[in-house]
Amino acid sequence: MTYIMVDIESDGPIPGDYSMVSFGAVVVEEGLGKTFYGKLKPISEKFIPQALAVSGHSREETLAFEDPATVMARFARWIKENTTDRTIFISDNNGFDWMFICWYFHHFTGSNPFGFSSQNLGSLYKGLVKDTFKTFKHLRKTDHTHHPVEDAKGNAEALLTLKNKYGLKIRL
Fold first, then answer.
1. Among 33, 86, 107, 142, which has the minimal tally of Cβ within 10 Å of its Cβ?
2. Where are the transmembrane segments (predicted)?
3. pLDDT digits (tens, 9 = 90+) for 76-105
4. How many CB atoms lie within 10 A of CB 57?
5. What is the assigned CATH class of domain 2-164?
6. 107 among known catalytic residues
7. Long-range pairs, 54-58, Cβ under 8 A, ≥24
8. 12-45 per-position pLDDT tens digit
């Protein structure tokens, strides 16, 4: 299995009505050298200024980003080129990140290379330490900056720590 850690930034709470501004992905393996970064032009006139501000981009900047269909097709190719077996989507907040990636893949390419399921890093950690009040975020080495590649890397570092130091049985 190949785990791909994903993080997205958006200008609102749901895909379709609002837009995914950018996303980052990293293949979870030692070195974390395989990354993807996409910046997407808005698909809607609607946006929430406070949500967009988290991404660090202005509305004017996002209007110059790439066509979402182009970015999602390139991401699908990147996934195919960087995996040899079943691909697993994992993120810090998979309920949020997954819905955007899944919607954009189906809407713009007709299929989702991740299939129909995703995994949540936070839930995995809570189960491993047997405490639903704990968070994995102290295991990140890369600062959480809301740049999606950096955030995906930090989360991938945490997953590798779960494997290497906490004994999580996982095939990477």
1. 33
2. none
3. 999 999 998 899 999 999 999 999 999 999
4. 18
5. alpha beta
6. no
7. 54/9, 54/146, 55/9, 55/10, 55/11, 55/21, 55/22, 55/146, 56/146, 56/147, 57/21, 57/22
8. 999 999 999 999 999 999 999 999 999 999 999 9
